[in-house]
Amino acid sequence: MDNRNARKISKSGVRTHRIQRVNLLRKRIYFEEEDRFVKIRVSARGLKTIKKYGLAYCCKKFNIDLSKKKYDAGYSPRKRKKKTEVETTTENNAVDAKQPQMYEEANKVMRNLNLN
């Protein structure tokens, strides 16, 4: 990964060893197929590859499983807002659906208690 054979040459011509490292970046990229963001540590060259072919293709080619929690970067603020709105409406619908069942059960109990 690192090039240990690199040299730095000063003005006087003295050659000293130095290490050349890969240009790695921590990047938050939108994963269109799953409609979410992922955080990946990727080289600058890898980033160009992702831009050219897409994230799904690169993950498949390099055997990266983005479903793991360490790659999760959450959703966009808009998605989060929509998600909370949807959750509140589904919760309200669930409560509304439970109430008739509760009333029916209460009516059954009252009929059983009626000693006519």
UniProtKB/TrEMBL annotation:
UniProt keyword Protein biosynthesis, yes or no: no
Pfam family for this entry, one: Ribosomal_L28
SUPFAM superfamilies from the UniProt entry: L28p-like
One cellular component (GO) term of this entry: ribonucleoprotein complex
Keywords: Ribonucleoprotein, Ribosomal protein
Gene Ontology molecular-function annotations: structural constituent of ribosome
PANTHER family noted in UniProt: 39S RIBOSOMAL PROTEIN L28, MITOCHONDRIAL, LARGE RIBOSOMAL SUBUNIT PROTEIN BL28M
UniProt similarity note: Belongs to the bacterial ribosomal protein bL28 family.
Protein name: 50S ribosomal protein L28, apicoplast, putative
Species for this entry: Plasmodium ovale wallikeri
